[in-house]
Amino acid sequence: MAASLPTRVTTTGPADTAETDATAAGAAQVDAAGAERAGRVASVCGLTRVFGERTVIDGLDIDIERGEFVALLGRSGSGKSTLLRALAGLDPEASGALTVDGTVAVAFQEPRLLPWKRVIDNVALGLDRPKEAAYAALEEVGLAGLAKAWPLTLSGGEAQRASLARALVREPDLLLLDEPFSALDALTRITMHRLVLDLWTRHAGLGVLLVTHDVDEALRLADRVLVLGEGRIAYETRVGVARPRSTGDLVELRADLLEQLGVKEDHR
Ligand SMILES: Nc1ncnc2c1ncn2[C@@H]1O[C@H](COP(=O)(O)OP(=O)(O)OP(=O)(O)O)[C@@H](O)[C@H]1O
């Protein structure tokens, strides 16, 4: 197991949540030098998480390279969110070696904006830099015009943009996305896919791990797609570097992934 060192882990959730307290307690086991040598932003070795009698994550290994966009698929209850929480350093009960080189930011399925703070103040929350950085992040996600708005007046897509801005303003090396688009309508989801790809392209070296249920989303966005099963990476496939991609180009990969997920397509 790697030595337990301080890590710079931030989340896009409220700073006063229990989760962030867990981070502050030093849940992540960090060996920054090891990851840097290997050109990796994150490396997980032998990660295990047991809930009562049930081993949800069972000696799992993952490496994420700098600048790599990885999608993680898995059936409901397979442990995707559990894995992501451990990677973010939010789970003091997870065991194994977690190596992160740099800052981690997380955006969750629900944007987790504090309703009593304006959008700009949510983005700037806990920031140790001038507020201009928060404005710049809002501009990057196309939300500068709503900086002074209250979170409850935002649409689902706008709230997710604010959540992304809150993650990006921390200049993360690794961005963890836990099903951030699943609650959005299909058109907004497509817009958000474009936005995330734009942001990822602009932030050279940013590693992304996207947890999703959606095989097509994984294939459109990621360089590499992993399938979680039985507590480990049960399947892994690389996707071509060409973007944008259409589902038509990816028929075989899609079929393979659906098979791995135990989904039978109905061709009637
Ligand atoms: N705090 C907890 N206590 C007990 N069991 C838990 C806890 N958190 C998660 N689990 C269990 O671990 C398993 C994996 O949960 P997790 O939320 O990681 O799955 P998931 O793959 O993200 O699921 P979904 O796709 O439905 O969101 C589930 O069976 C869940 O009930």
Automatic annotation (TrEMBL):
UniProt-annotated stretches for the region Disordered: 1-20
One of the Pfam families matching this protein, by short name: ABC_tran
Species in which this protein is naturally found: Actinoallomurus vinaceus
Cited SUPFAM superfamilies: P-loop containing nucleoside triphosphate hydrolases
Domain of life: Bacteria
Single GO term (MF): ATP binding
Family annotation (PROSITE patterns): ABC_TRANSPORTER_1, ABC_TRANSPORTER_2
Biased composition (Low complexity): 10-20
This protein's name: ABC transporter ATP-binding protein
Transmembrane segments: none
Keywords: ATP-binding, Cell membrane, Membrane, Nucleotide-binding, Translocase, Transport
